[in-house]
From TrEMBL:
UniProt enzyme class: hydrolase
Record has Repressor as a keyword: no
Keyword terms, alphabetized: ATP-binding, Helicase, Hydrolase, Nucleotide-binding
Domain spans labelled Helicase ATP-binding: 23-190
EC number(s) per entry: 3.6.4.12
Single GO molecular function: DNA helicase activity
InterPro entries from the UniProt entry: DEAD/DEAH_box_helicase_dom, DNA_helicase_ATP-dep_RecQ, Helicase_ATP-bd, Helicase_C-like, P-loop_NTPase
The protein's name in its UniProt record: ATP-dependent DNA helicase RecQ
Pfam families membership: DEAD, Helicase_C
Keyword ATP-binding carried by entry: yes
Domain Helicase C-terminal residue range list: 214-371
Entries under PROSITE patterns matching the protein: HELICASE_ATP_BIND_1, HELICASE_CTER
Amino acid sequence: MLEEALKKYFHYDTFRPGQREVIEAVLQEKDVIALLPTGSGKSLCYQLSGYLLNGAVVIVSPLLSLMQDQVEQMKRFGEKRVVAINSFLQGEQRERVLANLQAYRYIFVSPEMLGQKSFKRALSRVHIALIAVDEAHCISQWGFDFRPEYLNIGDTIRTFSRVPVLALTATATNRVKEDIRKYLHMENPYEWISAVDRPNICYQVVPIQKHYEKIGWLVAHVQHTTSPGIIYTQSRKKTEEYAEALRESGVRVAAYHAGIQQDERQLIQHQFIAGELDWIVATNAFGMGVHKENIRQIIHDHLPSSMGNYLQEVGRAGRDGEQSFATLLFTEEDDRITKSVSVMDYPQEFHIDEYERLANQGVNPFIMVEESRITETSYRILHYWMHKLPKIEVIEQINQMKFEKVKEVDQLQQILTGKDCIREEISRYFEQELLTKPVLCCSVCGLPEDVIPKKRLIKEASAQLFSWQERFKQIFPN
């Protein structure tokens, strides 16, 4: 039956590992925690279930770009009863959608929007068959992308009659899984836990003496080795610098970060997927919702802030099962820089004092964001905990969260730059046993000097260059 439905709705003959088991549990109205690797088809678990269940599927998703991408993909495959409820919907359009919410089979919503009274009123008129929480690690303060709004999802769910919950993520430790069970109020959930190991990805750490030497290494390396690939860096400025240096050396490359206009980002994604670009230099803003199976290299010029972030980014390589490479350029100062960056999104003690003072005066503390005295991310964390705990406990809570962030950086550094096999240590971090190792394992186990294949053909840059606005019109004429 399930294979017939898979063929009918998605034109696939077989399931990927874990998909069938997760869908079967959902159809039995069980709560489910599914840890499926990046690129393994997590979205199919709720999409196919939606065709087989009697009612709507509500999908809570943390990224607007990812949400929009999934909605557009489903529409391209012929599904018209799909909608995204987020900040892109304005005025009359939003009111019209909320008034007719029961007409949709798939309802994507951000965690912030899920808690709004107008949305909850509209959703109360809908017969809900399943609630899917994507990127469910965000529900845990110990997860690698903590979002305080996720902690309210479970309370919102409880306002409806009993509805099965499907929690989806690529990576989670036992501690994070326990938080997912707790905060989503799951009842004896079925768990499908995939192995975190990706045998076709070779892990390589390259020691670099000085941070400024990394750009020279990148240019020399990228010019001559296989593509396509993604270079991850921490700052918008570096994405532009690296991309410019690579472009001057003849590489088809683009910079990508959150400061670039949305239309231009869409174009860059399209060009990369279509093979018009060989490399992307990006902050971690790039990758979610980008479906490209043949990425051969992921390069980090910095130490990521957590194991979860690292695995999510390197997991974008080799989705076609072919040999791929994850390279980290590492200097001795990288851990200090990453620790500093990783705690930047947490409020300081003076922010807590200011929030309390404004609240006591009857002033909306959000004015701190409007006057650029605190980032919106920091404010969301502060606002959540100020409504949950006394001030002194808020200080303790946030200090503990910062401590855990720094600890995660230390753990990742030890795994990637220590003396033990990187692949074994990654599996051990997630309390999994590694049974076999590939020949091309990691730089600790030993790799040939030229482990990454050379380019077979250096592609010439296009003779005619267009502005991104002109190219956007060519690709998206409507």
